Amino acid sequence: MQVYHTESKREAGNSTYKSKNVDKPSVFTVWQKSSMGFQGTDGFSVYDDAGQLVFRVDNYSRRQKYLTKEIVLMDGNGKALLCLRPRIMSMHDRWNAYEVDECRNKQQNSKLFSMRRYSMLHKTDKAEVSLSKLAENNKPKAVPGFRIEGCFEQRSCKIYNSKEEEVAHISRKMTNGTSVVLGNDVFSLVVQPGFDCALVMAFVIVLDRIS
User: Fold this and answer.
1) Residue range 83-131, pLDDT digits in tens
2) 58 to each of 66, 85, 99, 153, 202, how far by Cα in Å?
3) Which residues form a coiled coil (predicted)?
4) CA triplet 37, 55, 106: central angle to 5 degrees?
């Protein structure tokens, strides 16, 4: 899976997760389960390479999209970071993302990005992201931001910026010191220095819904 990036109003280097070593990639283990641990709850729990919980999604619902109002990405302490909402009447499985403090804002320019499946005719992991940017007349406009290719269900994804530099990738998780591959509910996410880790995690959540 490949994603090509251009700048958005959320700066790429303004990550909500601060790596201990800014010169090395941030390595995460993503567990597709709510950190709350209640029976019947879905979600995401994301741990860094030191085992610290850094991102989470609790009470994540896998119900039909028209029953899902919004999904909130939080940091490890439960602070809301991004709000994701499906567009109900969308044939492309479009989702919109907002900064949390703008999530209740009804203004069009409060949207951070939109992500949709590339084709409405075929169920494919190919997707594209449009970033929201204010034009000179202070009106919002959509600009190309990312293109996503690959197979999220196989946990094989790569993320590139507009210069075709790799900024992140998703892969199957292997146990330390062995070649044993874990199930799809646990996978690895590696984000290169200077890129917004929360933004990448938001893509992962949407991919899980449209794949």
Assistant:
1) 998 877 666 688 999 987 766 665 555 788 888 887 655 554 577 887 7
2) 19, 15, 18, 21, 14
3) none
4) 105
Which residue type sits at 60? Y
Judge whether 146 and 4 are in contact, CB under 8 Å.
Answer: yes
Q: How many residues does the chain have?
A: 211
Q: pLDDT, tens digit, for every residue of 162-173?
A: 677 788 899 999
Burial of 61 (0-12, 13-18, 19+ CB in 10 A): middle
The rounded percent of the chain whose pLDDT value lies above 70 is 66
pTM: 0.81
Q: Quick one: tokens of 171?
A: 């892969």
CB 189 within 8 A of CB 170: yes
